[in-house]
TrEMBL record:
It comes from Ottowia pentelensis. The lineage of its organism: Bacteria, Pseudomonadati, Pseudomonadota, Betaproteobacteria, Burkholderiales. Keywords: Aminoacyl-tRNA synthetase, ATP-binding, Ligase, Metal-binding, Nucleotide-binding, Protein biosynthesis, Zinc. A motif ('HIGH' region) lies at residues 20-30. Zn(2+) binds at C109, C111, Y135, C139. It comes from the Bacteria. Its EC number is 6.1.1.-. ATP binds at K276. Gene3D superfamilies: HUPs. Belongs to the class-I aminoacyl-tRNA synthetase family. GluQ subfamily. Catalyzes the tRNA-independent activation of glutamate in presence of ATP and the subsequent transfer of glutamate onto a tRNA(Asp). Glutamate is transferred on the 2-amino-5-(4,5-dihydroxy-2-cyclopenten-1-yl) moiety of the queuosine in the wobble position of the QUC anticodon. It is an enzyme of class 6 (ligase). One of its GO terms (molecular function) is ligase activity. L-glutamate binds at R17, F18, A19, P20, S21, E53, Y217, R235. This is Glutamyl-Q tRNA(Asp) synthetase.
Length: 327
């Protein structure tokens, strides 16, 4: 896994994080993401934080959060501060939503998934594999709003966002939106290179607060990254598609945009991403060094057979990661 050179961050001014959802114990794919984020923080001389993303409470498994903390500790991956639980952050998310409402960028929506599917089918739009159907904007204020129906969720008005930020004064996130003809968001991934997405066309008005009253991942992660001072996000490649939505929210809320690095995914025998949803087995940590070696190989790091202890292996890989950063 090669990482293109990027503008340096001063030692000690780097803050990274690992943010698992406690839907079960860590698996092989989780350890790859955790190890990459830990190594990147240590290679920059920075701090590494742990955030438990437990806002989707129906999917959370009781006790999985504590088990994840224990698994990381077994692998020598110790956070530099106590973990942060998203379930304690509802007030911060509400404040952010109210800010978006006041700025005219968030609106209530009454549509169910079936409503969205029917509207898109009528327009000849079919769902692409691995992606949700773009929201057609049925409940936008300029289209009559809720049409007498009860609000179910809150959404970001992507077209208003694009128009506002194309004519807005200079902003720290303004440089990310540099295609004035389309309003597309451009960003650079440290591994994947130049990326581009137009939210209003490719994603639509995405959810900020769900119909069941739970906070959406996109809003929660942006608010928490800013609150924790995150400068660099290192996570699996499956989350790269979420990045433009998060950049948009960072701009709309006046929050800084971190640098991003998306790591290669660990695939199952069926070629699909290894995940808890498709039955990925929990990490076997009877020999933590062996599990770490497997994760390191996936990141194209030498497993260094001369080292046997977890501490020695991690120290070896930090040096290797530093060399990669300066290559």
């Amino acid at each position: 896994m090669s990482c293109p050179s990027t503008p340096p961050i001063g030692r000690g001014h780097y803050i990274g994080r690992f943010a698992p959802s406690p839907t079960g114990p860590l698996h092989a794919g989780s350890l790859v993401a955790a190890l990459a984020s830990w190594l990147d923080a240590r290679a920059h001389g920075g701090r590494w934080l742990l955030r438990i993303e437990d806002v989707d409470t129906p999917r959370c498994v009781p006790g999985a959060d504590r088990l994840i903390v224990q698994q990381l500790a077994r692998c020598g991956l110790m956070p530099d501060a106590p973990p942060l639980w998203q379930s304690s952050r509802a007030a911060a998310y509400q404040t952010a939503l109210e800010q978006l409402i006041d700025s005219g960028l968030a609106y209530p929506c009454a549509c169910s998934r079936q409503d969205i599917a029917q509207a898109q089918a009528a327009a000849g739009i079919t769902r692409q594999r691995g992606r949700e159907l773009p929201y057609p904007g049925t409940c936008r204020p300029e289209r009559g709003g809720l049409h007498g129906r009860a609000a179910r969720a809150w959404r970001l008005h992507t077209e208003r966002f694009e128009k506002k930020w194309l004519v807005a004064p200079a902003h720290q996130a303004r440089a990310a939106i540099n295609d004035e003809a389309s309003g597309a968001i451009h960003w650079h991934d440290r591994r994947l290179g130049a990326q581009r997405q137009q939210l209003s066309r490719e994603v639509g008005d995405f959810v900020l607060k769900r119909a069941d009253g739970l906070w959406a991942y996109q809003l929660a992660v942006v608010v928490d990254d800013a609150a924790q001072g995150i400068t660099d996000v290192v996570r699996g490649e499956d989350l790269a598609d979420n990045t433009p939505r998060q950049i948009a929210l960072q701009a709309a809320l006046g929050l800084p945009t971190p640098r991003y690095l998306h790591t290669p995914l660990v695939l199952g025998a069926d070629g699909e991403k290894l995940s808890k949803q498709n039955g990925a087995r929990a990490l076997d940590l009877s020999e933590p060094a062996r599990a770490l070696r497997a994760a390191a190989r996936h990141l194209e790091l030498d497993s260094n057979p001369d080292e046997s202890s977890v501490e020695a292996l991690l120290a070896h890989w930090v040096v290797a990661w530093q060399a990669r950063l300066t290559a």
